[in-house]
Structure formats: C-alpha cells, structure tokens
Specification:
alpha+beta, Aminopeptidase, Alpha-Beta Plaits, five-stranded antiparallel β-sheet, 12 helices, binds glyoxylic acid, binds manganese (II) ion
C-alpha cells in the first residue's frame, strides 16, 4: 500500500462526467440542492457506488451513504464526504471534488484488493451550499445535532417550496434516521476556494480549522411613493437606506482588515418598479472572521450602524441574525494523518485555516475530522470559471487515500 496512488485520469474524467448534470454555457454548474439535476447526479452516484461494491442508503435528510465493508464490520466507519449541490453560478469542483475523490479512493482500494479494518463510508451531504435552502450545511448539521429534524424539514426556498416536500419530490426522503450511526472519523477534500496555496506553489493544505461566520437578514421599511411627484426631502426610500448600509458594511469589514470579510449577496427590492420609490428592501449579510471576539465586535458595530442609518434615512430596519458558526479546530490526529500522507507522497504542504464553510465543520462535533485543501486557479470559487488541475486533484485524492489508511491502522491498534 506504501506507494499506492489514485487514478488521476479516471478521477478527472469522472468530475467532467458529473459536470454535465446542470452544466452551464460558461463551463460551470448550476445544480441547486433538490433540483432535478441534483436528483440526476445523485442517481448517478448511487449507481457508481453500487458498481464499486458499496451498499447505498439514504437518510431522512436525503444524504447518501455508500458503505464499503471492512474486516471488522462492527467498527464505526471511517467516512469521506462533501456535497454535490452547487451555487446558481457554481463551478465543477466545489464539493464535487471531495465526493468524487472519495469514490476514486474506493475504486483504487478495490483494484488494489485492500480491505480496511473499519468499513469505509462515502457521504454526499444534502444542501451544503445554503443557496436554495437556509441555513447551509443543513443535513450534516442535523446529523451532528446542531439543527432539529423539523427545523430542516420546514426550511423554504424563495418560491415557498419546503425542504421536506422537495426531498420527497426527487425521491430522496430516505428511510434511515438522521443520525442513526456514529462515524469513526471523517475526512473531506476540497478546493481551497482562496489564493494561498496557488500563490505559494504548495500542493496540499492540511486544514487546521475554520473561521467563524454569521449570517443576517435585514429588512428596511420605508414608504412606496410616486417617483415623479414625491419631493426628495419627503421620501422614505428603503433602497437609498440599504445602499448606505451596504457601503457601511464594507467600511466596517475594511476597518478590521485583513481578516474580516463581509458580503451583501442577496437583495430584494419592493415593489421593484421603475417609477415607484422603493418602500421595502430585504438583504442578507455574510460576515466572517477567524477570531470570535473580533466577530462579536463587528456584530455590535453592524447592529449600531443599521439602527443609526435607518434613523438618519427616515426608515425602519429590522435585523435578524439567522445563523452562526464559531471558529473551530479540527482533530489533531486527523490533521497529522493529512500532513504525514502528504509527506510520505513527497508533496509540498502547509497548514491552512478554511475561509469557507464545509460539512466537516459540523461533523467535527461528533467525529474526529480532518480536511485536505488543493489549489484552485486564481483562488476563484462560487463562479462558473472555478478551475483546478488534474494533477492537483489526483495529489489531494492520494493524500486522502493515505490519510484514511493511516487513520484505519491507528484506530485498529487502539481498538484491539
Ligand atoms: C460555502 O459554500 C461557503 O459559503 O463558505
Ligand atoms: Mn463546498
Ligand atoms: Mn460552496
């Protein structure tokens, strides 16, 4: 097993094959969670996993579990996972590289005729992106006890369609309870989605943890009014107030540079008519920082700014903080398995903190967890142009393979 490597060409071809489900003209992927294209890629994955000798099952959150038997089948499985859903203008690799590297690890082990002591489990988590249904990492969150089952089922998309109904519609409201089993360990490979590895010419990131994150929904209420007859001083323009807030949000983040990042990514203006002064604006804020104290300080500044801007603009504003993740650290042994695997295979590596959210963050609450990052082109992600190189994914997947084998060996020693 010492120098076993995955088949990089097969892995790349597999990624390109799945990119057809929801493929866009610009070469990206639009595969919103629980859409028809999500069903297609799930059906494809289930078939491939069965062909690789796995038993496939679905839990009540729609997550897919493909189990490869171990020598000691009573041991909790060592899991590999990520997600196959994408942003509306997503790329071919975010999440997908992780699931398909896991599949490639299983295929490679099959060819090598190697059976691990613990069973292996490949997981496709439902709704990692949080683009269609809020919050993100919904299924891994229920699996890890962060969210209630009913809370997840009640989540609605912008058209009022419920998560539960959409699961049933695509045939993925599974029988298995969520959760109904423990994981012995969990590993996730992901493109970095940032510029660090590429800039430094390093192949593998051993992810040590993730920065904290807060989501807000802000509703600004003014007054609908005639665009031709309402004098400027008499207006209660919700859009103008929103624009001032967006500027200030950027200023607050810049004030905590270089680590703070804040994004207003979704705005709904009402009535959205060109000759009506907007009476209402709804917008979202995504705020992140690796230090919880700074995150809380920014939270205070944000709330004060929203109140003051609303007052000065003659409108009302309501801020709801609807999702939080505190900064976290991954399991030391799992991080070491990743570092050692990269070392053994002769790949350059460095420790790195994740700027993006991942299912691994929630799974880390219930199982020892580690993550592997690989470089992506110009650090671009959540974009149809997202790209990486076949040799980067192959290297990452081989690191994944050896991290799993080392973890299996270490756990086998301690459980004997
Ligand atoms: C996940 O896609 C994130 O927004 O970090
Ligand atoms: Mn992702
Ligand atoms: Mn993403």
């Amino acid at each position: 097993m010492k120098n076993l490597q995955v088949n990089g060409e097969r892995l790349w071809d597999t990624i390109m094959e799945t990119a057809k489900f929801g493929g866009t003209e610009k070469g990206g992927v639009c595969r919103l969670t629980l859409s028809d294209t999500d069903r297609q890629v799930r059906d494809w994955l289930a078939r491939e996993c069965e062909s690789a000798g796995c038993t496939v099952s679905i839990d009540e959150m729609g997550s897919i579990f493909a189990r490869r038997p171990g020598k000691v089948d009573t041991l909790p499985p060592i899991a590999i996972g990520s997600h196959l859903d994408t942003q509306p203008t997503g790329g071919k690799f975010d999440g997908i590289a992780g699931v398909l590297s896991g599949l490639e690890v299983l295929r490679t082990l099959n060819e090598a005729g190697h059976t691990t002591s613990a069973p292996l489990e490949l997981i496709d988590w439902t709704n990692e992106e949080g683009s269609r249904f809020t919050p993100p990492m919904l299924a891994s969150g229920v699996f890890s006890g962060v969210f209630e089952h009913d809370f997840a089922y009640a989540s609605e998309d912008r058209d009022g369609k419920k998560f539960e109904a959409e699961l049933a519609r695509i045939g993925y409201r599974g029988e298995r309870k969520c959760p109904d089993h423990k994981l012995g360990a969990y590993f996730e490979l992901h493109i970095e989605q940032g510029p660090v590895l590429e800039k430094e010419g390093i192949l593998i990131g051993a992810v040590t943890g993730m920065q904290g994150q807060k989501w807000y929904e802000i509703t600004v209420t003014g007054q609908d009014a005639h665009a031709g007859t309402t004098p400027m001083p008499a207006r209660h323009d919700a859009m103008v107030a929103c624009a001032r807030m967006v500027e200030s949000i950027q200023a607050i983040a810049l004030n905590h540079a270089p680590l703070a990042v804040a994004t207003v990514g979704h705005v709904v203006v009402k009535p959205n008519s060109r000759n009506v002064v907007p009476g209402s604006v709804f917008f979202t804020v995504d705020l992140r920082h690796p230090d919880e104290d700074v995150l809380l300080q920014i939270d205070r500044e944000l709330r004060e700014m929203v109140d003051a801007t609303a007052r000065d603009s003659g409108v009302e504003a309501r801020l709801v903080n609807n999702w939080n993740v505190t900064p976290m650290e991954f399991d030391r042994e799992c991080i070491n398995h990743v570092r050692s695997a990269a070392e053994k295979l002769g790949y350059s590596h460095r420790d790195i903190i994740s700027g993006a959210g991942h299912d691994a963050v929630y799974v880390a609450r219930v199982a020892p967890t580690g993550m592997i990052f690989i470089p992506c082109e110009n650090g671009i992600s959540h974009n149809e142009l997202e790209n990486t190189k076949p040799e980067f994914i192959a290297a990452g997947a081989s690191v994944l393979l050896h991290a799993i084998l080392a973890c299996d060996e270490a756990r086998n020693k301690t459980t004997r």
